[in-house]
Amino acid sequence: MRKFVLFYNPVSGSAAFKGKLDMMVEAFQRRDALLIPYRTKAGGNEGLIDFVREVLPHGIIAAGGDGTVHEATNLIMKGRLNLPLGIIGSGTSNDFATYLGINDDLESYFDTIVEGRTRRCDLGLVGQEYFINVASAGMMTSIAHEVAPRLKNALGKNAYYLKGLGELAKFRSWKLTVTADGQEHELEAFLFIIINSSTVGSMKHVADGVQVDDGLLDFLAVQKTGVPQLMALGKDLLAGKPVSSREGVLHLQAKCFTVKAEEELQSDLDGEAGPMLPLTVETVHMALEVYC
Fold it and tell me: Are 117 and 292 in contact (CB under 8 A)?
């Protein structure tokens, strides 16, 4: 019998996932597989590493938002667990799962997991911390940290958009120096993102040419411009149009980026607070096996 550890966040997505737990247990039993729940808790879940080593599952399934997937990824990598990761999106934002299209049909996805169908994906690495989808800094990127959990659970993605509208009056830029595989660029930008997939902030196609297994990460910066240009850029993003080739957007591909700012600026990794700049980001090629 194949065994899987379910690493689930009990409060993600308006705490609705708890009501799906029995459905998932039954679905795996129907496939002659065993699902073993591991409930996440605030303050860290390093205990998962020893739990997995004791249980000896065939894979780990993360159920929650991007933050839960981020934590599961880091536990797998830092614990050297060498197991595939499944993703059941149940949080406010599920960007990596959306990009891979793995939650469109859960019954089919359960088949994929039990049958062991996987692909390998790149990861980003900042110091000792991995990210699966995006590293960012600048205006708007701090919103995920500032939205109250109660508001986020009640309003979902709308909580981010409402907070973002409140930030428009305070929009400011930073002078950045970006080094991409040894090539230096100086710019003044409102924000930047370094992405593994093209789905970011629930926007499904922010850039062309992005692949999760090409050994490269993509850097996009929204350079300082006027409000009309910003509004047009936002309109395209919400419409699902890529903005990587638009005027005022710098798009670079590289294995390694270093980003420096003239002022103090905090980064964000998969929606979780990251280190202060300067930031060195490396690509770890084909680092993680994902059920897909």
Answer: yes
Contact between 272 and 67 under an 8 Å Cβ cutoff? The reply is: yes
**What's the number of domains the chain is made of?**
2
Whether 158 and 53 map to the same domain: the answer is: no
Distance CA 193, CA 176 (A): 13
| 197 found inside a domain | yes
Report d(CA 206, CA 198) in Å as an integer. 5
Same domain, 46 and 176: no
167: its two tokens: 């930030």
Q: Are residues 93 and 187 in the same domain?
A: no
DSSP code, position 17: G
Give 217-234 pLDDT, tens digit per residue.
999 999 988 777 877 887
- Whether 124 maps to a domain, the answer reads no
Amino acid in position 213: D
Q: Are residues 111 and 209 in the same domain?
A: no
The distance from CA 54 to its chain's CA centroid, rounded to whole angstroms, is 28
**Cα distance between the two ends of the chain:** 21
**Residue 137: strand pairing partners:** 192, 267
Q: Report in angstroms the alpha-carbon separations of 244 from 1, 214, 251, 282.
A: 47, 18, 6, 21
Residue 215's domain comprises 130-285
Q: How many CB atoms lie within 10 A of CB 275?
A: 15
Sole residue written with tokens 């059941």: 88
- The model's pLDDT over 233-281, given as tens digits with 9 standing for 90+, comes to 878 877 778 888 888 899 999 999 999 999 999 999 998 899 999 999 9
Q: Which of 189, 172, 252, 250 is nearest to 223 (CA)?
A: 189
147 and 246 in a common domain: yes
